[in-house]
Design brief:
It is built from 12 helices and 29 strands. It is of the alpha+beta class and about 575 residues long. Strands 19, 22, 25, 26, 27, 28 and 29 form a 7-stranded mixed sheet that branches. Strands 1-8-6-3 form a 4-stranded antiparallel sheet. Helix 10 packs across helix 11 and helix 10 packs across helix 12 (about 545-560). The protein starts with a strand and ends in a 7-residue tail after the last helix. Mean pLDDT is about 80; it is low at about 80-120, about 200-265 and about 310-320.
Length: about 575
């Protein structure tokens, strides 16, 4: 067996992280995806899985060590290397005589095994799902290539639908598609095998090697490493089945999910979180017995056992049906007339669940007001020629975003989030504004970052780009993260007012309705003015009614005189 050094895989950051637990010792036999160490970043704890089988010869780190991408963790005798050596043994008759254990020629090898072996030597690589930021059970909604296609680097291979958007998975290399390992509707996670590809670079350099053993199949993602079993007689037979159900590395970025995650601050590895999801366990209710309070599988199993033995102490279920409230009974509507059952999209389902959670958990107060935007509209119309020259569509929304950013800076009590303890407020020092965008698949909320530092033109351009990406389902996760405040604008659709639901963990949201010309008493007479109705919903735990009134008044003054935005 040849000794190999296993290193820390790509963590998505150059920062060092701490080793808080070492899960193996010299002499241990590792299987594919067995956890090796537990690392702790600023945001979360993560398990590092083994990407190949073998025997641990030496552990190179200890608890408390600071490591980063590429740091050696341990030395192993790789089982895959040993298997390759056994395959190459028949090349020399003398070697076969000297080592009877390596007589592979006596073992009947299945035809499919012998057929697949040359693929590895011809540069066939397994392309796997990359890091999805911790998302699991992501649905495959489109396969963009077929067997025999020649693809370029960065060309889309498949389309996945996450909780918030659809995304294409690009090819990390150029080559020819040999086999596709997934199908439409599959639920996948990081490391799941997409397809086998004969890469271009490998095909150009492919030359027969008479005396050398074929190299093991290379793998793009660690969780998709090929495993081997021994046929009768000891001949290695590759197992090319997909490993979508395997436990994969959860990087530090998993803590920054777009949707609120109650388990984001809990120290538990991917395998433990998967077990908790399967058993329906809320990890925030589980006490960890591992290092630094880390939750292990035994803690989850003990929690379930205690609940089964004492069901009266179990907490009420929190579901979209109403957090323990009686569910609304289903009705057979077909007895009244023809009906059709239409499946909701994943985005629609997630939005419905989040809205239910927010409505049930946030004590809402909604305040209604109007802003006189007559002068704003006059100025905006005067800038149409310049807007056309810049290639930007100047709508009232960029002015509203800028005004909200200014109002958040003036009233910082709206730029907070409640801590989970209920006893602290998290004051934000940045101003990011989310804007609800209607798409054919459902509602999406891209975020204009640092809106207080950008001009109206910059905001208009960025808003147009984000809206186009939302409608094309091209928004990335980072495009929808970090909002401090949300604007839901009905624009010219209609309506004189509505009550938007606060998008927790934010504490306020603005609803904009259709502007109309109304008679307003001004200078001792009624004059026609363009009035914009808007509403402000806020979390009454964080914001008082007087604060809501002051915010609306200040916002209306900014929209009434856009010169105030410059002060």
């Amino acid at each position: 067996m040849a000794a190999e050094t296993f290193k820390v895989p790509d963590l998505g950051t150059d920062d060092t992280v701490e080793v808080i637990e070492v899960l193996v010792k010299p002499g241990d036999t590792l299987k594919l995806n067995d956890s090796i160490v537990v690392l702790e970043s600023d945001k979360a704890a993560m398990e590092i899985p083994a990407t190949q089988t073998g025997v641990v010869k030496e552990v190179l780190v200890k608890v408390g060590a600071q490591v980063k991408t590429g740091t050696p963790l341990l030395v192993i005798e790789s089982a895959s290397v040993a298997s390759s050596a056994a395959t190459s043994a028949p090349a020399s008759a003398g070697a076969a005589a000297a080592k009877p254990a390596a007589k592979v020629e006596a073992a009947p090898v299945p035809a499919e095994a012998s057929a697949s072996a040359p693929k590895a030597s011809k540069g066939v690589e397994t392309i796997a799902i990359p890091d999805l930021g911790g998302a699991a059970d992501v649905e495959v909604i489109d396969i963009l290539v077929k067997v025999g296609d020649t693809v370029k680097k960065e060309q889309g291979l498949i389309t996945l639908e996450t909780d918030k958007a659809a995304m294409e998975v690009p090819s990390p290399k150029a080559g020819k598609v040999v086999a596709i390992k997934i199908k439409l509707g599959d639920k996948v996670a990081q490391g799941a095998v997409i397809l086998d590809m004969e890469v271009t670079s490998a095909m150009a350099a492919d030359k027969p090697a008479a005396a050398s053993a074929p190299k093991p199949q290379s793998v793009v993602a660690p969780a998709a490493a090929a495993t081997f079993t021994l046929a009768d007689g000891g001949a290695p037979v590759p197992n090319s089945g997909p490993t979508s159900g395997s436990v994969t590395l959860a990087p530090a970025s998993v803590a920054t999910a777009a949707a609120p995650n109650p388990n984001a601050e809990i120290y538990a590895g991917p395998a433990v979180r998967m077990l908790a999801r399967q058993l329906g366990v809320d990890l925030s209710q589980v006490t960890g017995s591992g290092g630094k309070g880390r939750i292990v599988k035994e803690d989850v199993q003990a929690f379930v056992k205690s609940r089964l033995q004492n069901p009266a102490s179990a907490p009420a279920a929190t579901s979209g049906s109403g957090a323990g409230l009686p569910a609304i009974a289903d009705i057979d509507f077909s007895k009244f007339g023809p009906v059709e059952i239409v499946e909701m999209s994943k985005l629609h389902r997630v939005t419905a669940l989040n809205m239910t959670k927010n409505w049930l958990n946030v004590p809402h107060v909604t305040q209604f007001d109007e802003a006189d935007i007559t002068d704003l509209e006059t100025f905006r119309n005067e800038q149409k020629a310049l807007a056309d020259k810049k290639g930007v569509k100047l709508t009232p929304l960029p002015f509203i975003i800028k005004a909200c950013a200014k109002a958040l800076a003036e009233h910082p009590q709206f730029n907070v989030s409640l801590h989970s303890s209920g006893a602290k407020l998290i004051q934000k020092k940045y101003v990011n504004i989310g804007v609800a965008v209607a798409t054919p698949a459902g509602l999406m909320v891209p975020v204009v970052k640092n809106a207080d530092q950008k001009s109206i033109w910059q905001i208009a351009k960025e808003l147009a780009e984000l809206s186009a990406k939302a409608k094309d389902r091209k928004l990335a996760r980072e495009d929808m993260e970090g909002a401090c405040f949300t604007i839901s604008s009905l624009g010219n659709i209609g309506g004189s007012g509505f009550t938007p639901i606060v998008n927790a963990p934010e504490v306020a949201i603005m609803g904009v309705s259709k502007a109309s010309i109304k008679p307003v008493w001004k200078n001792n007479q009624f004059v026609p003015r363009t009035m914009l109705p808007f509403s402000l919903s806020y979390d009454h735990r964080a914001v008082n009614g007087v604060d809501g009134g002051m915010f609306c008044t200040y916002l209306a003054s900014l929209l009434g005189d856009i010169r105030l935005m410059m002060l």
